[in-house]
Write a structure and sequence with these properties.
It is built from three helices and eleven strands; from the N terminus they run H-H-E-E-E-E-E-E-E-E-H-E-E-E. The chain has helices spanning about 1-20, 25-30, 130-135; strands at about 40-45, 55-60, 65, 70-75, 80-90, 90-100, 110-115, 125, 140-150, 150-160, 165-170. The longest helix is centred in the first third of the chain and has 17 residues, at about 1-20. It is globular, with a radius of gyration of 19 Å. It comes from Flavobacterium weaverense.
């Protein structure tokens, strides 16, 4: 009987305390370390005529709640974009919140997807969801992914079945001045 109790106690300890955090939870915690900080980025993959090239690109990990992280992405003076990451049930959802200068929602907004597995501490994939397919039919084959490590954060888009590829890489080793509020936000 004592042996059975000891084994049960060990199993409870293992399952309650011995399990490591999932890849998505570790990724989430790694990203939260940057809350309040801003970083400059460069386009490393994309068309030569991409509207992002030759403009200052800044991400600001502006708002970190327990289950939502909002990251405005500024392209020059354009403050219309915010990446909204939501952590729920060991998965992460990525949505693109697009606003007009008056703060109202753009007609193409809230597209993105949810991870299909827990991913890794450094990488999360977001295949296009049904809302994206309904809103932007040609984006039904989009896959976004985000990487994060000690020195960089990348935001990536690949449209499967096409040559569409976009990557912007942010240098996490040096912060930059925090931009003013994105469109639709109040400081």
């Amino acid at each position: 009987m004592k042996k059975t109790i000891a084994i049960c106690s060990m199993l409870i300890s293992f399952f309650a305390f011995g399990q490591e955090q999932s890849g998505s939870k570790q990724f989430w915690e790694n990203l939260k370390k940057h809350c309040g900080k801003s970083y400059e980025g460069v386009v490393t993959e994309g068309a030569d005529n991409d509207a992002f090239r030759n403009k200052k690109l800044v991400m600001h990990v502006r708002n970190c709640d327990e289950n939502i992280i909002r990251i405005p992405f500024f392209v020059g003076d354009d403050k219309s974009r915010t990446w909204v990451l939501t952590y729920k049930d060991n998965r992460i959802q990525l949505k693109h919140d697009h606003r007009l200068e008056d703060g109202s929602e753009d007609k193409v907004t809230q597209y993105g997807g949810t991870t299909t597995n827990s991913g890794t501490p450094a990488l999360q994939f977001f295949p296009a969801d049904q809302q994206t397919t309904d809103l932007i039919p040609y984006a039904a084959s989009n896959v976004w992914w985000i990487t994060i490590d000690e020195t960089s954060f990348t935001y990536n888009l690949r449209r499967i079945g096409s040559d569409r590829l976009f990557t912007v890489k942010f240098d996490l080793t040096k912060t930059v001045a925090t931009p003013s509020a994105p469109w639709g936000w109040n400081d």
